[in-house]
Amino acid sequence: MPKKTGSTFRVAFMNLVQGFIFYYKKDRWAGVSFFVKARLYQRIIQKIQYANWHYFLSPFRVLTKQFEQTIPLIDDNFEKYGNYFLDKRFPLNHESIVYSLGVLSNTSFDQAVANKHECPIYLYDPSIIATRHINRINHPKFKFEQIGIWDKDEDMLFYTPVYGGSPSMIFEYAGRQFTAHCKKLASVMKANQHTSMDVLKMDIEGAAPRILNHMLDIGVYPDQVLVEFERPTTSSIIDFLDFFEELRKLINRFEDAGYQTYRMPRDKGKYYSIEINFSKAHRKKK
Protein backbone atom coordinates (compact mmCIF):
# COMPACT_ATOMS: atom_id res chain seq x y z
CA MET A 1 0.00 0.00 0.00
CA PRO A 2 2.74 2.59 0.86
CA LYS A 3 4.44 1.74 -2.44
CA LYS A 4 1.24 2.49 -4.34
CA THR A 5 0.76 5.74 -2.43
CA GLY A 6 4.33 6.78 -3.22
CA SER A 7 3.88 5.97 -6.88
CA THR A 8 0.66 7.99 -7.01
CA PHE A 9 2.40 10.93 -5.38
CA ARG A 10 5.25 10.79 -7.91
CA VAL A 11 2.81 10.76 -10.83
CA ALA A 12 0.89 13.72 -9.37
CA PHE A 13 4.14 15.61 -8.75
CA MET A 14 5.38 14.98 -12.29
CA ASN A 15 2.06 16.15 -13.73
CA LEU A 16 2.36 19.32 -11.67
CA VAL A 17 5.91 19.98 -12.88
CA GLN A 18 4.96 19.30 -16.49
CA GLY A 19 2.04 21.70 -16.13
CA PHE A 20 4.30 24.45 -14.83
CA ILE A 21 6.75 23.94 -17.67
CA PHE A 22 4.04 23.79 -20.36
CA TYR A 23 2.27 26.98 -19.26
CA TYR A 24 5.54 28.84 -18.67
CA LYS A 25 6.61 28.09 -22.24
CA LYS A 26 3.18 29.04 -23.50
CA ASP A 27 2.74 32.41 -21.77
CA ARG A 28 5.61 32.87 -19.29
CA TRP A 29 4.51 33.78 -15.75
CA ALA A 30 1.00 34.72 -16.87
CA GLY A 31 0.64 31.14 -18.05
CA VAL A 32 1.93 29.77 -14.74
CA SER A 33 -0.53 32.01 -12.87
CA PHE A 34 -3.41 30.65 -14.95
CA PHE A 35 -2.25 27.08 -14.33
CA VAL A 36 -2.14 27.59 -10.56
CA LYS A 37 -5.59 29.22 -10.51
CA ALA A 38 -7.03 26.41 -12.62
CA ARG A 39 -5.60 23.74 -10.32
CA LEU A 40 -6.94 25.52 -7.23
CA TYR A 41 -10.38 25.84 -8.83
CA GLN A 42 -10.54 22.23 -10.02
CA ARG A 43 -9.12 20.63 -6.87
CA ILE A 44 -10.64 22.82 -4.14
CA ILE A 45 -13.08 25.59 -5.13
CA GLN A 46 -15.14 23.53 -7.58
CA LYS A 47 -15.46 20.62 -5.15
CA ILE A 48 -16.75 22.97 -2.44
CA GLN A 49 -19.07 24.75 -4.86
CA TYR A 50 -20.65 21.51 -6.10
CA ALA A 51 -20.74 19.73 -2.74
CA ASN A 52 -24.12 18.31 -1.74
CA TRP A 53 -24.06 19.17 1.96
CA HIS A 54 -24.86 22.88 1.49
CA TYR A 55 -27.40 22.67 -1.36
CA PHE A 56 -30.15 24.16 0.87
CA LEU A 57 -28.27 27.49 0.91
CA SER A 58 -29.00 27.95 -2.81
CA PRO A 59 -32.63 28.73 -3.76
CA PHE A 60 -31.89 27.48 -7.29
CA ARG A 61 -30.70 24.07 -6.06
CA VAL A 62 -33.67 23.80 -3.70
CA LEU A 63 -36.11 24.51 -6.54
CA THR A 64 -34.28 22.03 -8.75
CA LYS A 65 -34.68 19.37 -6.06
CA GLN A 66 -38.40 20.11 -5.81
CA PHE A 67 -38.78 19.74 -9.59
CA GLU A 68 -36.78 16.50 -9.55
CA GLN A 69 -39.08 15.00 -6.96
CA THR A 70 -42.02 15.28 -9.36
CA ILE A 71 -40.28 12.68 -11.57
CA PRO A 72 -40.29 9.00 -10.51
CA LEU A 73 -36.90 7.58 -9.58
CA ILE A 74 -35.57 4.61 -11.57
CA ASP A 75 -36.48 1.19 -10.18
CA ASP A 76 -35.13 -2.37 -10.25
CA ASN A 77 -35.72 -2.55 -14.00
CA PHE A 78 -32.65 -0.39 -14.57
CA GLU A 79 -28.97 -1.32 -14.70
CA LYS A 80 -26.02 1.02 -14.19
CA TYR A 81 -23.60 1.53 -17.08
CA GLY A 82 -20.80 3.91 -16.18
CA ASN A 83 -22.48 7.14 -15.11
CA TYR A 84 -25.94 6.37 -16.58
CA PHE A 85 -28.70 3.76 -16.28
CA LEU A 86 -30.39 1.64 -18.96
CA ASP A 87 -33.79 -0.05 -18.86
CA LYS A 88 -33.21 -3.82 -18.85
CA ARG A 89 -36.59 -4.37 -20.52
CA PHE A 90 -34.87 -3.30 -23.74
CA PRO A 91 -31.93 -5.75 -23.87
CA LEU A 92 -29.03 -4.79 -26.11
CA ASN A 93 -26.91 -7.05 -28.32
CA HIS A 94 -24.10 -6.78 -30.84
CA GLU A 95 -26.47 -5.34 -33.45
CA SER A 96 -27.83 -2.56 -31.24
CA ILE A 97 -27.40 1.05 -32.36
CA VAL A 98 -26.22 3.45 -29.66
CA TYR A 99 -25.59 7.18 -30.15
CA SER A 100 -23.63 9.20 -27.59
CA LEU A 101 -23.66 13.00 -27.90
CA GLY A 102 -21.16 14.84 -25.72
CA VAL A 103 -17.94 13.12 -24.69
CA LEU A 104 -15.16 15.45 -23.55
CA SER A 105 -13.03 13.04 -21.47
CA ASN A 106 -15.65 10.70 -19.98
CA THR A 107 -16.65 7.58 -21.90
CA SER A 108 -17.47 5.36 -18.92
CA PHE A 109 -21.03 4.78 -20.17
CA ASP A 110 -19.93 4.14 -23.74
CA GLN A 111 -17.19 1.72 -22.73
CA ALA A 112 -19.49 -0.18 -20.38
CA VAL A 113 -22.12 -0.66 -23.09
CA ALA A 114 -19.62 -1.58 -25.81
CA ASN A 115 -17.74 -4.02 -23.56
CA LYS A 116 -20.84 -5.84 -22.37
CA HIS A 117 -22.88 -5.96 -25.58
CA GLU A 118 -20.14 -5.66 -28.22
CA CYS A 119 -22.17 -3.14 -30.19
CA PRO A 120 -20.81 -0.06 -31.98
CA ILE A 121 -21.11 3.31 -30.24
CA TYR A 122 -21.51 6.40 -32.44
CA LEU A 123 -19.98 9.33 -30.58
CA TYR A 124 -20.09 13.04 -31.42
CA ASP A 125 -18.35 15.95 -29.74
CA PRO A 126 -16.97 19.22 -31.21
CA SER A 127 -13.96 19.56 -28.88
CA ILE A 128 -10.34 18.63 -29.49
CA ILE A 129 -10.26 17.31 -25.91
CA ALA A 130 -12.79 14.66 -26.90
CA THR A 131 -10.77 13.72 -29.98
CA ARG A 132 -7.61 13.25 -27.91
CA HIS A 133 -9.52 11.21 -25.34
CA ILE A 134 -11.07 8.94 -27.98
CA ASN A 135 -7.66 8.44 -29.62
CA ARG A 136 -6.14 7.58 -26.25
CA ILE A 137 -8.91 5.08 -25.41
CA ASN A 138 -8.73 3.59 -28.91
CA HIS A 139 -11.79 1.39 -28.37
CA PRO A 140 -12.51 -0.87 -31.36
CA LYS A 141 -16.28 -0.30 -31.08
CA PHE A 142 -16.10 3.51 -31.01
CA LYS A 143 -17.07 5.43 -34.15
CA PHE A 144 -16.27 9.06 -33.40
CA GLU A 145 -16.66 12.31 -35.31
CA GLN A 146 -15.50 15.70 -34.03
CA ILE A 147 -18.68 17.66 -34.71
CA GLY A 148 -21.58 19.03 -32.71
CA ILE A 149 -25.17 17.90 -33.05
CA TRP A 150 -27.80 20.60 -33.56
CA ASP A 151 -31.18 21.04 -35.25
CA LYS A 152 -29.49 22.47 -38.35
CA ASP A 153 -26.44 21.67 -40.46
CA GLU A 154 -24.32 24.74 -39.77
CA ASP A 155 -21.24 26.11 -38.02
CA MET A 156 -21.82 27.16 -34.42
CA LEU A 157 -19.82 29.17 -31.89
CA PHE A 158 -18.89 27.25 -28.72
CA TYR A 159 -17.92 28.73 -25.36
CA THR A 160 -15.67 26.96 -22.85
CA PRO A 161 -15.41 27.50 -19.08
CA VAL A 162 -12.34 29.48 -18.01
CA TYR A 163 -10.74 26.66 -16.04
CA GLY A 164 -11.77 23.72 -18.18
CA GLY A 165 -14.94 21.75 -18.79
CA SER A 166 -17.41 20.95 -21.53
CA PRO A 167 -17.96 23.55 -24.28
CA SER A 168 -21.45 24.88 -24.92
CA MET A 169 -23.24 26.71 -27.72
CA ILE A 170 -25.97 27.74 -25.26
CA PHE A 171 -24.14 28.87 -22.14
CA GLU A 172 -21.79 31.80 -22.84
CA TYR A 173 -18.85 30.78 -20.65
CA ALA A 174 -16.02 33.29 -20.26
CA GLY A 175 -13.23 31.01 -21.51
CA ARG A 176 -11.89 30.23 -24.96
CA GLN A 177 -14.29 30.30 -27.91
CA PHE A 178 -14.15 28.20 -31.06
CA THR A 179 -16.32 27.49 -34.07
CA ALA A 180 -17.25 23.94 -34.97
CA HIS A 181 -19.40 22.34 -37.61
CA CYS A 182 -22.69 20.87 -36.42
CA LYS A 183 -25.09 18.46 -38.07
CA LYS A 184 -28.68 17.47 -37.52
CA LEU A 185 -29.32 14.11 -35.91
CA ALA A 186 -31.10 13.11 -39.10
CA SER A 187 -27.99 13.97 -41.14
CA VAL A 188 -25.64 11.75 -39.14
CA MET A 189 -28.19 8.94 -39.06
CA LYS A 190 -28.46 9.11 -42.84
CA ALA A 191 -24.66 9.06 -43.20
CA ASN A 192 -24.57 5.97 -40.97
CA GLN A 193 -27.45 4.39 -42.92
CA HIS A 194 -29.64 4.26 -39.81
CA THR A 195 -33.38 4.81 -39.75
CA SER A 196 -33.72 4.15 -36.00
CA MET A 197 -31.62 3.64 -32.88
CA ASP A 198 -31.84 1.72 -29.62
CA VAL A 199 -30.25 4.25 -27.28
CA LEU A 200 -29.54 7.97 -27.47
CA LYS A 201 -27.37 9.46 -24.72
CA MET A 202 -26.95 13.25 -24.49
CA ASP A 203 -24.72 15.42 -22.29
CA ILE A 204 -24.43 18.55 -24.40
CA GLU A 205 -24.46 21.55 -22.07
CA GLY A 206 -27.89 23.10 -22.56
CA ALA A 207 -28.53 22.10 -26.18
CA ALA A 208 -30.57 18.97 -25.45
CA PRO A 209 -34.12 20.45 -25.37
CA ARG A 210 -33.89 21.97 -28.83
CA ILE A 211 -32.35 18.84 -30.37
CA LEU A 212 -34.87 16.52 -28.70
CA ASN A 213 -37.81 18.62 -29.88
CA HIS A 214 -36.40 18.42 -33.40
CA MET A 215 -35.95 14.64 -33.05
CA LEU A 216 -39.60 14.23 -32.09
CA ASP A 217 -40.63 16.57 -34.92
CA ILE A 218 -39.00 14.30 -37.51
CA GLY A 219 -40.39 11.11 -35.97
CA VAL A 220 -37.26 9.50 -34.53
CA TYR A 221 -38.12 7.49 -31.41
CA PRO A 222 -35.21 5.64 -29.76
CA ASP A 223 -36.13 2.91 -27.30
CA GLN A 224 -34.36 4.88 -24.60
CA VAL A 225 -33.18 8.47 -24.37
CA LEU A 226 -30.72 9.33 -21.58
CA VAL A 227 -30.27 13.05 -21.06
CA GLU A 228 -28.56 15.42 -18.67
CA PHE A 229 -30.51 18.69 -18.59
CA GLU A 230 -28.22 21.44 -17.31
CA ARG A 231 -30.03 24.35 -15.72
CA PRO A 232 -29.05 27.93 -16.71
CA THR A 233 -25.74 29.27 -15.45
CA THR A 234 -27.11 32.79 -14.95
CA SER A 235 -28.61 34.09 -11.71
CA SER A 236 -31.75 35.24 -13.51
CA ILE A 237 -34.90 33.80 -11.96
CA ILE A 238 -36.65 34.35 -15.31
CA ASP A 239 -34.13 32.14 -17.14
CA PHE A 240 -34.45 29.58 -14.38
CA LEU A 241 -38.25 29.39 -14.53
CA ASP A 242 -38.19 29.35 -18.35
CA PHE A 243 -35.87 26.34 -18.20
CA PHE A 244 -38.29 24.34 -16.06
CA GLU A 245 -41.26 25.35 -18.17
CA GLU A 246 -39.44 24.22 -21.31
CA LEU A 247 -38.38 20.96 -19.66
CA ARG A 248 -41.93 20.21 -18.47
CA LYS A 249 -43.27 20.75 -21.99
CA LEU A 250 -40.61 18.40 -23.38
CA ILE A 251 -41.44 15.73 -20.80
CA ASN A 252 -45.10 16.02 -21.79
CA ARG A 253 -44.16 15.56 -25.46
CA PHE A 254 -42.23 12.38 -24.67
CA GLU A 255 -45.04 11.01 -22.55
CA ASP A 256 -47.59 11.82 -25.26
CA ALA A 257 -45.37 9.80 -27.62
CA GLY A 258 -45.61 6.79 -25.28
CA TYR A 259 -42.51 7.20 -23.13
CA GLN A 260 -42.23 6.85 -19.37
CA THR A 261 -40.06 9.45 -17.61
CA TYR A 262 -37.58 8.34 -14.97
CA ARG A 263 -35.13 10.33 -12.89
CA MET A 264 -31.60 8.96 -12.67
CA PRO A 265 -29.81 9.53 -9.33
CA ARG A 266 -26.69 11.66 -9.00
CA ASP A 267 -24.00 11.16 -6.37
CA LYS A 268 -22.12 14.41 -6.91
CA GLY A 269 -23.13 17.95 -7.83
CA LYS A 270 -26.79 17.38 -7.05
CA TYR A 271 -29.40 19.87 -8.28
CA TYR A 272 -27.18 21.61 -10.82
CA SER A 273 -28.73 19.48 -13.52
CA ILE A 274 -31.37 16.80 -13.91
CA GLU A 275 -30.62 13.41 -15.48
CA ILE A 276 -33.58 11.68 -17.10
CA ASN A 277 -34.21 8.36 -18.83
CA PHE A 278 -37.11 8.42 -21.28
CA SER A 279 -38.05 4.77 -21.81
CA LYS A 280 -40.59 3.26 -24.19
CA ALA A 281 -41.02 0.29 -21.84
CA HIS A 282 -44.52 1.36 -20.92
CA ARG A 283 -45.74 2.29 -24.39
CA LYS A 284 -49.43 1.56 -24.69
CA LYS A 285 -50.22 -0.83 -27.50
CA LYS A 286 -52.88 0.29 -29.93
Q: How does CATH name the architecture of the largest domain?
A: 3-Layer(aba) Sandwich
Question: Per the principal axes of the C-alpha atoms, what is the gross shape?
Answer: globular
Estimated structural class? alpha/beta
Largest sheet: 7 strands, mixed
- Bin the strand percentage: 15-25%
> Distance between termini?
61 Å
List the helices and strands and how they pair.
Elements: H1 2-49, H2 59-68, E1 78-81, E2 84-87, E3 98-101, H3 108-117, E4 121-124, H4 128-137, E5 142-145, E6 148-150, E7 154-159, E8 177-184, H5 185-191, E9 199-202, H6 208-217, E10 224-230, H7 237-256, E11 260-263, E12 273-279
Parallel strand pairs: 3-4, 3-9, 4-5, 6-8, 9-10
Antiparallel strand pairs: 1-2, 7-8, 10-12, 11-12
Describe what this molecule looks like in 3D.
The strands form three sheets. A seven-stranded mixed sheet has the order 5-4-3-9-10-12-11, sandwiched between helices. A three-stranded mixed sheet has the order 6-8-7. Strands 1-2 form a two-stranded antiparallel sheet. The chain has seven helices and twelve strands. The chain has two domains: 2-49; 56-282, Vaccinia Virus protein VP39 (Rossmann fold). With 286 residues, the protein is of the alpha/beta class. The protein has helices at residues 2-49, 59-68, 108-117, 128-137, 185-191, 208-217, 237-256, and strands spanning 78-81, 84-87, 98-101, 121-124, 142-145, 148-150, 154-159, 177-184, 199-202, 224-230, 260-263, 273-279. 40% of the residues lie in helices and 21% in strands. The protein is globular, with a radius of gyration of 20 Å.
